[in-house]
Known about the structure:
CATH superfamily: Vaccinia Virus protein VP39
Number of helices: 7
CATH topology: Rossmann fold
Number of strands: 12
Strand content: 15-25%
CATH architecture: 3-Layer(aba) Sandwich
CATH class: Alpha Beta
Bound molecules: S-adenosylmethionine
Amino acid sequence: MQEYFDGNRNLWNQWTKIHFNSDFYDVNSFINGKNTIDPFELDEVGPVSGKSLLHLQCHFGLTTLSWARLGAQVTGVDLAGEAIKTANDLAKQIKQPASFIESNVYDLPNKLDQQFDIVYTSFGVLNWLPDLTRWAKICFDYVKPGGVFYLAEYHPFTWVFDEKNPDQLEVGYDYFDQEVLIETIVGSYADPEAVIDQKESYEWAHPMGEVLTSLINAGFQLEFVHEFDFSNYKRYPFLVRNEKGMWVMPEGKARIPLMFSVRANK
Ligand SMILES: C[S@@+](CC[C@H](N)C(=O)[O-])C[C@H]1O[C@@H](n2cnc3c(N)ncnc32)[C@H](O)[C@@H]1O
């Protein structure tokens, strides 16, 4: 397993440098005040001012620091040292107090002993985690009694499609696959032309039942599970932008779930 984490760390260290300069992440707009949290997340998480917030798998901190700008006392955690270094530099640059920790989520209990009002994690996180039972227990332990866990993520149903031919939405992957998925890396989702010397990523599919059951078994009480017919980026070439800036199926085409969110209480 360690070799998978090492490979993914190497990949994310390289991707961080590319993402920092990409149009996809648009760091300049962020520095100039843009909040990178989706409006539906702001509604679902609710006011954060004065609350402590742990952001797991925070990448280079844009979303963590967006929560900080809204008044949360934030701690971000990520596997990639390059992401943590960039997040710390950005926090200084925009003068937001924030704490960032370089850690594998699974090793965090050895490095951080504190509980939070909110444990938050979002978009492109679960696929990097081999064991959701352990992950959910770690999330549970970091939430204060009376606190909240919130997850916003791409819907696991979308993982079945072979994105080599995204126009067709052909089923190419097994929804229930338990094995590691070894993917060949070409560029990055934020810059397909980027040159990367890490040639593989190591990922895991997690069906919706597994995600929710792991949270329930950890001890959480689920408050809601929302499935969305929109995506926060143009996942497929045929998606069209709606009036809220989200990407949806064009009129007349049958909808599939593109993202989901979970809010749970302790
Ligand atoms: C797609 S990003 C999430 C980013 C966030 N939604 C954004 O767009 O900024 C996934 C992050 O998970 C981190 N990651 C992957 N495996 C991890 C692990 N085992 N422990 C902690 N972080 C991990 C990566 O380094 C990466 O920064």
